[in-house]
## 1
Amino acid sequence: MDERALIRRYFSRSAPLAGERSAIIVGIGDDGAVLRPEPGYDLVVAIDTLVEGTHFLRDMPSAAVGHRCLAVNLSDVAAMAAEPRWAVLALAIPEVDEAWLSGFADGLFALADRYNVALVGGDTVRGPLAATVTIHGQARPGQVVQRRGAQPGDGVWVTGSPGDAVAGRLLLMDPDKKTGHDELRQELIRRFLFPEPRVLEGQQLSGLATAMLDVSDGLHDDLGKLLAASNVGAEMDIGCLPLSTALQTLCPRDAIEHALTGGDDYELCFTVPAAAESSLLKAAESWPVSVTRIGTIIAGEGARWSLDGRPYRVPDSLWQHF
Ligand code: ADP
Ligand code: MG
């Protein structure tokens, strides 16, 4: 199969053309895509690369790889409280493996369709397996929520149950380990393979959250980035961590550590002033995911965790790229 046939077969799907929202003027098939954001919106751009061996495992289903390379980008746009619109994909593959490619495309498009995101271009080359997606989103001026902006007194909140994904990854890497609880085990593995970006939740946090980011490298590490950007510290309560039943059942000894340092969660961590707390809880009533208050912003720097009133030392993160 030549490159053109491959692109046509796996990556050109009929995307919504210039319609009411005048989105795509020129899509896949030309030298460049021509896109038209809605009048009055700013562009929000993010990029993430997944490299085999570092960000995903060789024996992971390819649908999970396709899902992940878009999900991590959607998660970045969500963390800006913006709306994702258009994606481009640079894919390096060692050989043309049709079963792998078709699973990859299925995983990617299933997620893209759910959030109305169009794949409008890309590049396909031979090389060590890696996938880079650039996502383009839109936001009205003033809509985005940045990492800076948290104020002393704000509550620190997190969506979902951090720690599940790393537990799922460890279970996947050790398939012979006897754990019982088959359903809970599958739930954790699914949380690693198919992380759900909090796209709609992120947009609804515009105007409520003072600062926000998505949790990819572990809750403690990522919260540290938000605090540094906002020039504040935080008092955090281990007892408030939303540990899932699956995590507590299958990893009773490591649950807290996984939640703080595991990574790959793609949950949102954000700060909300006390005055906006009831509006947050009201908005969150319709969310398919929980939100939990886990701490309070204070003057100072860094996150101080405590358990039952005693300081809790956070172990070093599992993830360090360099
Ligand atoms: P060029 O040589 O001009 O860069 P290509 O042959 O690389 O063109 O790509 C042809 C068309 O297919 C372009 O519109 C490009 O955006 C699109 N394309 C290539 N690879 C992918 C991919 N993996 N996913 C989506 N679109 C792709
Ligand atoms: Mg090209």
## 2
Amino acid sequence: MEENIYVTRPSLPPVEEYIEYVRQIWDSHNLTNMGMVWQEFNKGLSAFLQEQHVLPMSNGHMALEMALQALDITGEVITTPFTFASTTHAIVRNNLTPVFCDIKESDCTIDPDKIEELITDKTSAIVPVHVYGMPCDVERIEKIAQRHNLKVIYDAAHAFGERINGVSISRYGDISMFSFHATKCFNTIEGGCAVTRDKETMLKIYQLHNFGIVGRESVELVGANAKMNEFQAAMGICNLKHFEENRNARKVIFNRYRERLSGINGLRLLDYDEDKNTYNYSYMPIFVDSAEYGMNRDALRELLAKKHIYARKYFYPITNKFNCYKNIGFRGNTEIAEQKSKQVLALPLYADLNIETVEEICNVIEEGAGNGVR
Ligand code: T4K
């Protein structure tokens, strides 16, 4: 393959659609601070999510940091390390202590069977991750949270547009955060949003994201700047119009990958439940069992790279093994997360990835089986 194929490629609207909004922004000279385009985007986004309290922000990470701040979370927070750096950093940057819970083998989300043993009198919240858009066991997490009076903040960075039993995934927990980064299935270049059902909480996040300003002469909270600008919002309006067609295109690719790869010895795919969940099909993780497959994950990644296919180790290393945390010694046994992170390879998956390329990627993986070094 001559052209480089990356793990993802941003979906872009027809350029004319975007330019129309750029002209509007030019004419208004209103570039940021919750202007008209931002308001239009927020309205469309709330309608799409069927949620009342939604706040488009500069990025998903700040939405997560401010969600924790808005709920006055203290002490310990139970979370998983099988995620992007952002989840753990958001906790630590709020001066909170992450306590790491292991994940389920079947879908890599937090294992509800292992949450309660980690709860102490210092625990005040759970931050589960809908990793790869795999919905966490939201019902069980809700019950645990209620029993122990804990807040739940979902890192739903990967789960935009998903539904559980027909209901938006953001309906669960106290707050959910979506990421609209360029690499996500829906992008505003950089961006993200916070969603909650509680009006007061939303007001607090709104104030926090604009320096804690409450009125012209009144600053009530130690906030920061997490505002989404007009150009980001314009991209959001345009991309939202094409979200469903892009979802359908990704589903075709995802299904083809599953057809081709599910029978290969030593490769494991995640367990999807299409009767219950509406997915966004934004990630295609495979897990390589080197003993059975005949080659380890890193060797397979190199084999693909030789053909200009750049699969990624999302997520390796797990966050509790990061150098910046090595002297801290966080609590929690995360054996399965560690094993999964050593096996995972995220294959290219995006709306305009052509099906011939998918076939070629599968050919390489198929030919690799049984042929490599352990
Ligand atoms: N929680 C979770 C679970 C997350 O995964 C993330 C973000 C967050 C929280 C925080 O949300 P944000 O604050 O980001 O909204 C990427 C993204 O930067 C990051 O947003 C994302 N997770 C993470 C999983 O992936 P990298 O360092 O792997 O990205 P990068 O630049 O290597 O891009 C991957 C590939 O995508 C490139 O090889 C080529 C392609 N690409 C990328 C960009 C930026 C393009 O084709 N065009 C582009 O503009 O982190």
## 3
Amino acid sequence: MANIRLDKYLADMQLGTRSQVKEYIRKGRILVNNNNVMSPNAKVDTKIDIILFDGRNISYEDFEYYMLNKPAGVLSATRDKHSDTVLDIIQGFTRKDLFPVGRLDKDTEGLLLITNDGMLAHNLLSPKKHVDKTYFAKINGKVLPKHILEFANGIYIEEDIKTLPATLKILTSGIESEIELTIHEGKFHQVKKMFEKIDTEVTYLKRLSMGTLVLDDNLQPGEYRKLTDSEIEDLKSIKVE
Ligand code: URA
């Protein structure tokens, strides 16, 4: 984004509602490149112009990116009347238009990207792009080497829905097993359904990575941090079939 109205610039950066920021502008509290600008519809360049509000520099952030370790019990949605959502967890953000990139089930934990960058989200979620997602899971039941092959060949999770080849790593195998599974799509309840099909049950599910983005070990469930510049660059440059 380059040229936008001054009142939009200030409202986007959460200085107030459109009418509040218009009032600030008319009262001369805003400087653009050290000049008083009293007109709310003056155009400013978000990349070049220096905007001061009562002497405080207000730089423009087009996009924000957060990595959340989603805790169990919250919905992957923006707002909900009845349940807490992942956006209720994020505090101190600037942009009002944040959303979670994709969905984890309410009882699933782990990596969730939260941003307002619609283009990046579209690329990561597009069914054509097959972005890898890796999960850790605890399984009620015995996961066996033969299942590695079954998942690698693709498995019917519904009568007419076959999964793409997935990579299963068995960490422990017994009455309860622990596994890592990498899938290349995001069908509804996909991991749970895949294990149902081999007569087992997922009892704990956590997403570890999505594309190049890996869950930060330092984040406890419910904690989040901004993505680093290199994490953002890497996500933007994911080349997928
Ligand atoms: N697969 C599932 O079954 N649930 C999730 O939350 C994510 C992947």
## 4
Amino acid sequence: MGRVLIPREEIAARTSELGRAIGHDLAGRNPLLVGVLKGAVLFMADLIRAIPASIAMDFMAVSSYGARARSSGAVRLTADLSVSIEGRDVIIVEDIVDSGRTLDYLRRNFATRRPKSLAVCVLLDKIGRREVDVKLDYVGFVIPDRFVVGYGFDLGGLYRGLPDIHVLEPGAPA
Ligand code: IMP
Ligand code: MG
């Protein structure tokens, strides 16, 4: 496996900060965290424990890269929410923003469902690869244009369970 880019201790420390910020911003409300399957599951599980409030959670799934390392550009909803978000304070929790297409799609899709408020929290921001400008409210780390695996991030469905975030070096044996 490639070298560690972000060790587990740094992920945990930053997640605590994000949780406190979200708890502060949404104090006294009853927010709904929406995790984007499957990549955001590990981050979601840690983030919800870092928010000092009682929080509801739900999940949805969008089409992803599959076994390829680059996006096809098309985004498709493959599993929808199980609850209505109308009138709710919603935070979309996503693993990474790359081109921005996935979150742009989700923001537009969610806006039509009339939430009371809508925010986006991402663990990683590959800012150098942005093609669509999308508003991010909470960002864990800005990272360079490298393909990462571990802590939810996969290549062809593998490596999600690694506790740290690794860079997949080109040509290196996975
Ligand atoms: P976007 O729509 O181009 O912003 O891509 C976002 C999605 O691409 C993320 O939700 C991930 O599923 C996937 N992705 C982008 N970069 C990486 C990476 O370095 N490792 C694993 N998945 C990635
Ligand atoms: Mg994803």
